[in-house]
Amino acid sequence: MCQFCVKEQHPQRGTICLESGSYLKNYAGCKGCGKREPLKTFEMSTQEDNDGEELVTYKHICPSCEHLVAEHEYTFRVEGKYQEYMMTCLLCGTAADSISILPESPTENTSTF
Ligand SMILES: [Zn+2]
Ligand SMILES: [Zn+2]
Ligand SMILES: [Zn+2]
Question: The pTM is what?
Answer without folding.
Answer: 0.85
